[in-house]
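2024-03-11 09:14:02 DEBUG pipeline.ingest accepted 1 chain
2024-03-11 09:14:02 DEBUG pipeline.ingest length=287
2024-03-11 09:14:03 DEBUG pipeline.predict start
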Amino acid sequence: MEHNNIAQRLTDLRAAKGATQEAVAQELKVSNKTVSKWETGASLPDLDMLVALARYYGVSTDALLGIAEPQERSVEELVRAEFRGLDRKEVIRKAFALVDAVIPACGVSQGRTEEHDGPEALPPQTDRQMSRDCVCAQDFFDFVASSEDVNVAVMLLRNRADFAWLKQPEKQKKITQFFGFLSDEDALSVCYFLHSSACPDSFTADYVAKQTGVPAAKAADILDASCEVGECHRFTAHLTDGETTVYECEDDGMVLSVITLAYERMCGKCSYNYYYGNASGKMIGGR
């Protein structure tokens, strides 16, 4: 075994994992200086430590030693390697950290996504009869659906408030206001148009009425209500023939996400590829 080759592979694997020498040392219960010596070729890990390193980096010991080329791993294998050996609390924190890391990995910077060419990005649709995956526990909920109608992934974790805001009157009023806005069928038609590529950045109620078939007065009421729940903004435009209200929609996806989850609950398949849970999935008062 050549020290320098193994040292380089250890350095490359750590860089690919995005880990620091300190993180590796803590995971393997050795000192930072020991990890540094491995990566500089000053010393070699013993056999037990080689196995532990291979497990930590998610490769075979043959690949680590240079006997075989490392094989490209699937997303599932990469994720499993990240969670291996963690306790439940660490798993949940790691899951949230991974989701948080997806945002910059997707090329999002300062609220703007990088321009891209090519076909629309659509997740693969499952070819199995049951199309939804779910994890449900007292402190963690994760739901994924991939079908012709829906591609959605949502994660919900318990919070320090223990959802106490659900019983606070002032919060209840705002929440019911939001669902009241979505309870009208015409409002759903307007939401569909607002989130479509056919909708311009600025528009009037009359324009929306013509595009959706909703009466002009009703369209104006819906757009005013959408401003109250944060879906749209409005301002007064001063024209030569008078004033008119102009609306703008930033379509941040929040409302569309809620509607999508409601669709899955009421119209999707009530079955799962996988359902992981414990005796109780209640996230409120679960301490």
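2024-03-11 09:14:41 DEBUG pipeline.report The beta strands are 108-109, 112-113, 132-136, 140-146, 151-157, 202-203, 232-239, 242-249, 274-277.
2024-03-11 09:14:41 DEBUG pipeline.predict end
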